[in-house]
Amino acid sequence: MFRINFKIALRNLLKNKAFAAINVIGLALGLCSFVLLLLYIQFEKSYDRWDPELEQVYQVREKHHFGSRDNKADWQITNDSRVAALLKKDIPQFKYTTRIKGAHDCSVRTTSAEPVSMSGFRYSDSNFFKVFPYKFLLGDRTTAFSNLNSVVLKEHTALKLFGTSEVLGKDLKILGYVGDKGVVYKVTGVVEDPVCPESVDFGAIVYDGAQNQDPENLGRTSYCEVYVLSEKGIDLGLLNLTIHKSYLNFKKSFPDFDPKVNEKIKDHGLKILPIGEVHANPPFKEGWVDQIKSVGALSLFLLVVSIINFVNLATAKSVQRAKEVGVKKVLGASRKSLTWQFLIEAAFLSFAALFLSIVFVELLLPFFNSHFDLELSLWHNREIFMIGLELLAILVIVTIMAGIYPALVLSSYRPVEVLKGSYTGSFKGSKLRYGLVIVQFVITVTFMICMGIMMQQGHFIHHKNLGFDRGRLINLPLNYNETFAQRLKKIPGVQYVGTTTQVMGNVFNVDEEGKYKQQIIHLNMVTVSMETLAALGVQLKTGRLFSREYQQDTLNSVVLNESAAKLFGGNCIGEQYSKKSWDNKEYRFKIIGVIRDYHNQGFDKTVLPTVYKVTQQGGSASTNNLLVRLNVSDMRLVIKQIEKEWRILYPDNQMTYVSVEDVFKKELKTNDAFIEMIACFSFVSVFISLMGLFALSAFVISGKTKELAIRKVLGASNIQILNLLSRSFLYLVFAANLVGWPLAYIFASQWLSGFAYRVDITAGPFFITAGGSLLIALLTVGSQAGKAAVSNPVKALKYE
Amino acid sequence: MIELKNIEKYYANKGVKSYILRHVSTEIKAGEFVSIMGPSGAGKSTLLNILGMLEEPTYGEYQFMGEDITSLNERKRIDLYRNHIGFVFQAYHLIDEMTVAENIEAPLLYKKIGGSERKSRVADVLDRFNMVAKKDLFPNQLSGGQQQLVGIARALVAQPSIILADEPTGNLQSAQALQIMELFKKLNEEEGITIVQVTHSEVNAGYGSRILHLLDGVIKEDLKVNQTV
Question: Which residues cross the membrane (chain A) (predicted)?
Fold first, then answer.
């Protein structure tokens, strides 16, 4: 029985090759995006799952605003290093706490080789491997950091540096920053690279003893990440309350402690987070779960569109199967067995679609990975069994969603109706089918409009005046060194050299509380050197930029940006404001110039009111930016010259640099990738919907052959026939447009609200989409209707 | 075998009853070959459909092999289809996606007959109908007469006690029609299968043993056929 039903299904498919193909390809496209999404979720969920012991490891999060993007407090990963000791003292459940510095690039020399630039070298205290259960290939977990100046490498680092992992006891010299003399470390261990991605990523853990101590001076803070290993079975909520309380007590011991801290309680805090949840909860931005929601909804929509196609085609085709159903029923088939037959057919098609979608996914993955900077895989996935199960679940769900309605419609045919003479049939469920076509087109139209608006926004931010000149500007990872700067300036083609704490790609915001006419003003403070603003090519509005001609510029002159100037009441050249440092000294600053706002971090946030200072009074920070403005078009020659100078001064480091133009492109990449994805979704959804419309119109028209023939005999012209057939479909598409417009408006404005700088929504995309969708629908239906219109009516009327 | 008592069938439309069948009472005995005749719209097909349980009478009593059909549930009815009733249609109604052999095999599948017996029965029927060479062809590769032969073969293979045929020769040329009628007669006489057919043709009716004349839903005549005609 199964075999014969299978044969019938196959023969049916072969008889309607085009429809079968449309059905399967449509569904496969819908499934493809879904499978990709599944792989992505799988990947994101795999963070920090490489050892069961990790369930007892927690990340400490302190709420503060130091170094945040917009000077607002957030639960940051970097903490005051003192909290490690605090937690160890106050919370008995914690077995170990460890402090680790963030990763930064450094130069590494093994005995013979040239210096190698390495990333991911991190300094920690002696407890790191007591907290994290890394598997030691060589060396010992407990004694790796018994001696100072030890380093533990990950296997891939060892291979990169030495070409072998047998490196126990070997020496390597690490230069932490450019110009560093360097310290020799002994390799005391090699750990395995975990199979899944890690939040606490590193290439090597360096132990120099410095992280064991906290700064003695209470005015200084060493920021680092803190992790704890706890006992099993702790109550996280309760424990976090205790931690918070102990943290507030600790804060009160500081001389600059603000007694109002209780009022600002929201801005301070300490908590722990299971390491498994760290990746999903990054500070300052949405976690992947939130980010994926929109994409998830999109691929779900796409799947719905393709399932609708499936249902539509299957029910439309049911007329052809009516006789089979009737005959089988009088031969003794029960309704249940028929329902099963059609469900199994749907499952068969879904399976074919799933198979095809996996082929698509395999073909797409390399492109997808490189485009979105991911490492997804299907066949080599560790969780292939899990994914297989999920795919099976999808298969069942899709089969039921796509197959149940057609199966019920088909199996409900009454033999007496379908077996009387030759059955051409009334269209069962045609209202539902039209409804589904509308839903399909609503989704498509919404996609198209959103895509249009997003592309406008994309164009807008790509071409927006940034307020500075990003071309021919390069950034070397160096702190300012007057000798080096002077030597660079002698190179023909180098115009300006300067340093800054804030440039696109490496932004470090420091909140500064100033007092102006008895009012507190919050500014974002940026430390620059004399030529930096000129090097950036910012646009001066009033006053002047820093200059060596003015002695006081290195003391107390400041330049504001426009947003900051507004806080001072607009025209504020020559005005002064004061600022207290942490040890209660008061400094006064004089405003000498106002520049236009310039962008240095995306377009989602407004430019902060910013003050630029050359002076280091009242605090500064070194963030390794050396900006070099070139004034020749061929940058390569000049960069070679710069490299020559670099080698002389820093022989232990490879020269690296980034062009600010590239950094800008990178800033926009995530956004561009998102827009491209939406574009992709739109085209696929348009494609599927049109395929569906094509097939459906073909069926509707084939069911109307007799009606058309009669109309022709009665004198209808070809144009009238064409009009008659196309009109109802155009109404559908038009109705879909009406529903799609407000939806698209809501989605697009939601998306745009994530940008501080955005385009206005204009009517353009709406009208273009409406016109476009009607036109292609007309062409699709017209190609079918045209054929019907010119056919000879005698053929259709000959048989009854 | 079949007993109809006071069968009525009507459609109510806006309170007006339009009758298809009225006061139809008759009895068909096992081994009879009955032809139902009458002008278009007389209710022939409806009567046949009621006999075949494809339609239900609005009113009246129908006993099939001693069982009251009107109170039968779906499952029992399907059992009757499987074991006792074979249908032959004017438009043949072969399943287009099945070959000749598969079409003939289909009712046996629903009767849950084992694979080897199915094969031998299908081979047997193919042999009897001289269609062995055509067994792997699809219906649209056959002529109308051949398709109807397959239709009859399919009805016979499940060894039914009664064959219900709705204008079995309506779409056929006269030579082919003759062949089909000869076949029916042979089946009736040699194997004792009860046959009820609907027909317009006096000639076809002449092959049977009894003629029911229907006019406007009422049995006007019930004649024994003189076999010598």
Answer: 20-41, 295-314, 342-365, 385-413, 434-455, 674-701, 729-749, 761-781
